[in-house]
């Protein structure tokens, strides 16, 4: 019985797909275990619906977590809705402190003070807006 090359190629492709399927499954399982190890009382977390808060209490029997979003606002959510433990980025305060681009242009949507916008550049004559022309 002769084996067709097309059959061999199909079996190889099937074996590769099965390999990647098991590999991805193990990766997802490892990521879920890592997340559950980081989830603890006092951790700042984000839920799968985009809510940020701090964990106050965890109930393993009921699979529930109490999350405080703002002072005095406590929400009870399912433990699996916690998708990420938030760690503050060290670069975030630096980016917020920059008001202008490197070349001095204002950031998108930033208002420019009229005093700086109306300031004459070098070589331009200064004209006061309050002066009246002689022909008026």
From TrEMBL:
Cellular localisation: Cell membrane
Transmembrane regions listed in the UniProt entry: 6-22
Chain intervals for the UniProt region annotation (Disordered): 88-136
Topology term for the membrane: Single-pass membrane protein
The UniProt record lists the keyword RNA-binding: no
Keyword terms of this UniProt record: Cell membrane, Membrane, Protein transport, Translocation, Transmembrane, Transmembrane helix, Transport
InterPro entries with a match to the protein in the record: Preprotein_translocase_YajC
Location, primary (coarse class): membrane
UniProt similarity note: Belongs to the YajC family.
Entry-linked PANTHER family: SEC TRANSLOCON ACCESSORY COMPLEX SUBUNIT YAJC
Protein name: Preprotein translocase subunit YajC
Species name: Herbiconiux aconitum
């Amino acid at each position: 019985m002769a084996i067709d090359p097309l059959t061999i190629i199909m079996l190889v492709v099937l074996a590769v797909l099965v390999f990647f399927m098991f590999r991805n499954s193990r990766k997802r399982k490892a990521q879920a275990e890592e997340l559950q190890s980081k989830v603890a009382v006092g951790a700042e977390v984000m839920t799968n619906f985009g809510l940020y808060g701090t964990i106050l209490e965890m109930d393993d029997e009921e699979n529930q977590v109490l999350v405080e979003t703002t002072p005095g606002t406590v929400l009870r959510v399912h433990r699996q809705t916690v998708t990420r433990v938030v760690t503050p980025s060290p670069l975030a305060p630096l980016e917020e402190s920059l008001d202008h681009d490197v070349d001095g242009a204002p950031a998108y949507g930033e208002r420019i003070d009229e005093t700086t916008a109306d300031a004459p550049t070098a070589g331009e004559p200064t004209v006061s807006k309050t002066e009246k022309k002689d022909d008026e």
